[in-house]
Amino acid sequence: MEIFMKILGIDSSGLVASAAVLSEGSIVAEFTVNNKQTHSQTLLPMIEQVINMSGISLEELDAIAVASGPGSFTGLRIGASTAKGLGLALEKPIIPVPTLEGLAYRLAGMDGVVCPLMDARRNQVYTGIFRVQDHRLQVVSEQKAVDIHEMIQELNELGEKVTLLGDGVPVQRETLQEELTVPWQEAPVHLSRQSAAAVVALAAIYWKEGKIETADEHRPEYLRKSQAEREREKNKTI
Asked: What is the pTM of this model?
């Protein structure tokens, strides 16, 4: 029996800010911007807009879905605090969706190997490898923060054609062109960045699988320490 749910999805893990509402198996409203405005300025107004345009009140929601990391430290904190605040105020559960799974799910309509790349600076990327089959994601390699050369080596050893997407692709395009030996392509521009619609669609699946938590329990998954933390540790050793 199909479970019809109403879920608000949030993704502020990268350069894109996005909010969407899923109701009864359909995306009924979505607002996505990629204009370099800070997420603290855009996210709450976007949520208000998608809620108003969906015709669904916050109280009617069954859950809040959020891209849970990795990604921008500031963006993840904004997304997590927003989701937690709504969850606590409305007494709704949180559905955490790993950022790279949400990004890879943008390509759930195609078969084959998908590799999202998010720029993590200093020649590193947040990444993972996924296989898409029958509109479902299979994790080939768990999400992680690694050097781009290490990721390319892993893809070459896998030996299959791969579709790349994410803001790390243009940053690393020259290196990818020089070092990737397997056939590869970039996702089309309308599918190449984060989307709360993908987050909320995947969240509906995760809800059925019991992958939920309370607002109190939710914490973003950073995968590595922030630059400020690394600088403090470095100064302690000097």
From this structure: 0.90
